Predict the 3D structure of the following.
Amino acid sequence: MGGTNPYIRDSSVRLPQQPYTVTFLLEATGEERAVQVEPGKLPYGHDGLAGSILDIAMGAGIPLDHACGGVAACSTCHVRVEVGSETCNEPSEAEEDMLDEAAGVTEASRLGCQCVPDGSGPVVVVVPSWNRNLVKEEPH
């Protein structure tokens, strides 16, 4: 499962036209990973909206839990966009509803599966250490 939820109206998204950088700050490990996003290669996978923070994270091998497959039906991909939020699409009502259920929500909170930067500037995303899907199955 992944991509879009057929019961949620599509959000307005502007995909990037030039390369840009997303820096992921992983609170659980203290690791910082910068990813160069190449617009011509989007989407990297099938989880979340094309070009979303989740799509970029999965394409770069960065762990970002997403129990629903990236269709805005849970809040396990909750992140904080600390820099560059103005370059991202506006949150949809469905995203805001899911964030109401998330722990530790701040003004910078977004669902990684729904947050799509337009590439007009760098983005810094914090992946909270406590945001883990405890029932996630490991690949066999």
About this structure: The helical segments are 53-59, 93-99.
